[in-house]
Fold these 2 entries.
Entry 1:
Amino acid sequence: MDIKTSLAKELKKRCTTLKIGEDERFSAASLANAFQISRNTASQYLNELVKKGNVVKINSRPVYFFHRQVLEEKLDTTLENSVYESMEDLMRTTKRDFEKMIGYNGSLRALISHCQAAVTYPDHGLPILIYGPTGTGKSMLAHLMYEYGIHQGILDKKSKFIALNCSEYANNPELLTDNLFGHVKGAYTGAENEQAGLIQLADQGVLFLDEVHCLKAECQEKLFQFMDKGIYHKVGDNENWYRSSCRLIFATTEDPQQALLKTMLRRIPIVISIPSLQQRPQVEKIELIYTMLMMERNHLKQDVYISNLAYQALLDHEYRGNIGELQNAIRATVANVLVHQGQNALRIRLLDLPEYLFESMNTLQTKNYDQEDEAMIPITDLNKDRKSKTPLLQLYDRLLETYHTCQSEGEDYHQIITRCKYLIQNFFDLLFFRQKYRSISSNEDYLLKMLDKICSIVMNRYSFTVPNNQIKIYSKAFVEYSKNATDAMLWQSFHSQEVQAIQSVMQEQYARDYSVASEIVDNASLNLDIKMDDFMRVIMTLALIDTEKEENNGRVGLILCHGYSTASSIADTANHLLGEHIFDGIDMELKISIDKIVQLVEDYLKRKSPIQELILLVDMGSLEAIYKKIHLSNCNIGLINYVSTATALEVGHAIQHGKVVQEILRDVKNSFYLSTHFIEGVRKEDAILTLCATGFGVAKKISELLKSALPKPVAMDIIPYDYQSILDHGKEDAIFSQYNIRLIVGTLDPCVEGVEYLSLESLVASDSIQALMKHVSPYLNAKEQNLFEQNIMKNFTLSNIVNHLTILNAEKVIDDVEDFVAQVERALHKTIDATVRMGLYVHISCLIERLMLRQGIENVEGIQEFKAKNKERMDIVRQAFSGIEMHYSVEIPDPEIMYILNYL
Ligand SMILES: Nc1ncnc2c1ncn2[C@@H]1O[C@H](COP(=O)(O)OP(=O)(O)OP(=O)(O)O)[C@@H](O)[C@H]1O
């Protein structure tokens, strides 16, 4: 046996145990080794076998050779070529049915599974309608359904796929009917022979009716009988029934609800809508361009290069005719190049693109392109672009990864947030400085202005400050998002549960930042006309969270300057040089009034609260007046005039070294000869009030339960207080001049304007813990916050509350109240919701105890009128109480019943 035959035999042997991806055994070197010949000689023989068609060659590095027959058997296909550029190139040509459709694993996944169902459904499949704009792949999909049927053994290999474009018969419905159903001899003049219709010809196979909206109503009706029972009449024969079991696939570019008879639509159980090219993910667009250029390359047997800019133009153009138009554009381009180049390799430049593509690019882009833009990329490299994700999606992946790792390693939120913020900052930096992914859309300017407006509205509403340079970065991020919107949506659909989990963490832990972020994202998406996904909200929230809040002993620096970004730039530079975030900057319009500035500072203080000391650096002497107007402050404020980066640095260092405001002012005065002012804060301690409408004892117990949940003493008091006094005096009550009351927790809302109320029952129902956390968390680090939250959940369980608040047996009381509630619900025909029910448990158990201790309310104002108006309802509640009255030997006074009715 000669060497060449032996090589072929050896290759065949190796191929029988081939696993795709395991290629070394198929290189010339490995085969040469087996026969002790030189690699060159082996290559020469193998190439001769390739020419003869017995061996397939993969032009990768190193080159691989496979035995054609074995390979074809393994791949269950017939290979068209003997030479392929890469294994991937080979695999692409061997793709089966739906796999040939780009996006089969992505944006078309759900739709393809419907197609599979339509083919598979016993006995003869289900009619299906494909709806979508021109060129989106409707015909391709129809044909692949047929191929799928064959591969799955559902359709016979000999069965046919017949396509009919109904629009060609729009003016001749008779001819269309004739074509579809066939005719008998003599059916009309000229019908000399019996003729089979397409329904008959496609029997056992597929009949594809494209542009079905052109099917006249009579013709649609004629199809009903066939769709219902599989039988039809031929033209000219209304007596005999003919039978066919062809499957029907319809396609239309028009809205099916408008274009087809309702009775027709009812007979098509599966309707799928195929997305336009614009709605496809960027990766799929890249893959389409890559595949089409590769097809041209294989067809012309020439290497193809494309310039950076031409590639971007192909990628960015909005193809109204979708994939079909993209394909035409690529073919026209290649034809253009062929005409005036005719060399070995095709080089596609921007000017080779069809004119209409060129025109749709923005002028700036076309005028200013440089050498680098015209750098030629071998099209095989486009594949790399396809595989590498865009920076936005990389950020998505990394954030998710970080979240998972931090969770599995048990890190607290603070650490997770810090890490995520770092990733986001890197992404922002990339957007700012990148060359490769630079934006070529001109809407950035517009977006920046729009975002500026949105941010100022949102900032006002939430007393939030976002520095102007940060707004610039957000606008870049939104532009980036708009380019990747489809990919991002797809990514999110794969990770929806995780995104939801992260989103709820954000919502709970950083409610305020989350609300601000949501408003910015919602407004931006409204104005950009793209739907932004929830993960973008998460990213924006993370970007806004201020992780530095609790550092530097509650001492912060704020820079206020006129001008677009003066303050934020000084703050940025100083923070950068100081290595930590010490300063915030508020950029102010030139004509801003002193009152407005004071408002800004006060809002800032509220937002940052609790802070001990604020060093305010301003840019003009005229601003000195503001210190006289700041009233609200309960922290010390130092004001320094004529801020510069140097003063900011000096102040920053001092803050880092723990100096107090007065010391800092003295230093600055000495080194810079600047005028300074000191405003001593009216220090009011923060406090939470606990109240109970029916007795101080319960208020005291609530306060004890709250205090005992704190993992450490904090600079905020929790004070049990008299409900009636607050009700009578509101904010004028003495307690308000003594304390900065941040929250009231109790059994009945005293409605004090501007002070948040948290009901005991909602705390028990665990649905309002965040309202409490918001006020307590500034005093606790992340771990302590977690502990506090856990303690609250433990302390405020229903039985614990009842146990704590009363001396009664909790289980028993809860049972009794349950009976009471059930009776009231029945008699009043209403369902009492869980939170109100919880409130009743708490209230009634306290009530029983009070009555047993003879502390019930005997009289309240307005009871007589109430009784007169609500006699029936009062009777119902009294009746429902009868069991409790008997059990505990108490009598429920009318004011208590009135309270309960009001509560309900
Ligand atoms: N997902 C896809 N992957 C690869 N090629 C595709 C894809 N979708 C469409 N094509 C190609 O795009 C071209 C247009 O597709 P097709 O003719 O199926 O679209 P259509 O929706 O039927 O158009 P029309 O409504 O104009 O008849 C075809 O050459 C097809 O092979």
Note: The longest helix spans residues 413-433.
Entry 2:
Amino acid sequence: MQGVWTPDQIRAAERSVFARTPEPLVMRRAAFAVAAHSARLLAETTGATAGRHVTLLVGAGNNGGDALWAGAELRRRGAGVTAVLLAPDKAHPAGLAALRRAGGRVVEASGPGADTAGIGAAATDAVQRADLVIDGIVGLSARGSLRPVAAELVARVEAPIVAVDLPSGVDPITGAVDGPAVDADLTVTFGGRKPCHVLGAGAVLSGSVVVADIGLGDDLPEPDLHVLEPSDVGAGWPVPGASDDKYSQGVVGVAAGSATYPGAAVLAAGSAVQATSGMVRYAGPAADVVRSRWPEVVATGSVADAGRVQSWAVGPGIGTGASGREVLRHVLESGRPVCADADSITLFAQDPTLWDAREPDAAVVLTPHAGEFERLAGEVGPDRVAAAREVARRDDVVLLLKGNTTVIAAPDGRVLVNPSTHAWPATAGSGDVLTGLIGALLATGMDPWLACGFAAHAHALAAELAALGGAGEEAGAPIGASALLAALPAAIRTLRST
Ligand SMILES: NC(=O)C1=CN([C@@H]2O[C@H](COP(=O)(O)OP(=O)(O)OC[C@H]3O[C@@H](n4cnc5c(N)ncnc54)[C@H](O)[C@@H]3O)[C@@H](O)[C@H]2O)[C@@H](O)CC1
Ligand SMILES: [K+]
């Protein structure tokens, strides 16, 4: 599992480090890492570092300082380096001096011969002839998107971009962008990942992220967020052991769908069948359809007749009327962990007294999309992590907030983030598959917070595998939820083989 730290946590750790190690030395470490990774990328894309041209985009703060020191190091490795200063009066003085000593060239963004966009001729030339561009425009102190001159320069870049710490223009805390921003091929960050590397547009605009060690080590507190690695999910995925039988691996009850709309039932039950080797019970008006599609499911007409289960997946397609409410009340009274999705969420929003049916010790997972979240607790807003965390605490639930980045908050404040680099799961019925997956993992006794993280991971990978169908990333085709469901075993195999 990877940790993610807020800018405030990183700054506090840096202050402790500065008590032992002088600040300029820490900056040199950061810059050296930027230079080393830039040299590697240059070698990969052009075959060499020496003789290639690197252009630095340099803003007003220490982020620009890192870029300037990195430029000095690349110059020593034989690259031609030009720094384009966006705020000439505020450019980091020591970094600027180091670059000049190393034989680098310095030009102003709005220097002589400026065109209608306000960009000087030398700056345009430096950006256009670059083999690699280093983005040191703004870092942890960033506010808002790129300013016009920076945006115009960045728009003219055709070479690969290495972002220092984070892609400029992205909000460091939320990963959101509200205007032009750098789209980096590689981000070299320091001490630990920041939220913008895993949330919102920032997760995509960061490109690949490498974390350079600048000695923060023991000074970092518990991470603010966590990200599961594929290998974490693969290693922890429940598979049958030598002494297991169908009951010992957990029995999940699925209460979903209706006679008129049996699709949700078929998808949720099917996903539970494929998630683990335990047993799946179905309870509801779509029993005949579920049985004919999934003969291994033990299907009955109502939750009262379902028999013993270790968890419930409830909600998709049960309706928001009296019968849906009774189904939800029944599963809450069971004292088993419950994954409540779709209509269940609307039912909770309509009638908060439903919470009274809940056994205090039994975990409840809610899986709203933004619209369902709004019914529960108002608009999500730009800080999706804060929104999910607040409702998880308030309602004592594990809250999985759907979206391009899935955010999973536990009542004790822990947050898992599942950054998605594609939108293939955005299709009707996809949520029903997720509900079945979570329900099945809950039945194994897994920590509900982790169960959600595992499910979100496998779900996103299954969608990707189904959409790509063995073709390259550019050649995917839209899929429906049935194709996503069919790709679940392949996704689990892929995760277990990492
Ligand atoms: N404290 C340290 O010694 C270390 C800092 N490091 C670097 O320092 C960076 C943070 O440096 P700073 O706190 O000086 O701040 P930045 O370099 O992030 O920002 C500098 C200034 O840019 C302005 N600004 C804010 N948003 C802007 C925007 N959208 N467009 C243009 N200008 C904008 C603000 O006035 C801000 O104070 C980190 O991201 C990292 O790169 C690293 O060198 C590691 C050690
Ligand atoms: K940057």
Note: The pocket of potassium ion (ligand 2) is lined by residues 63, 135-139, 163-166, 168 (CB under 6 Å).
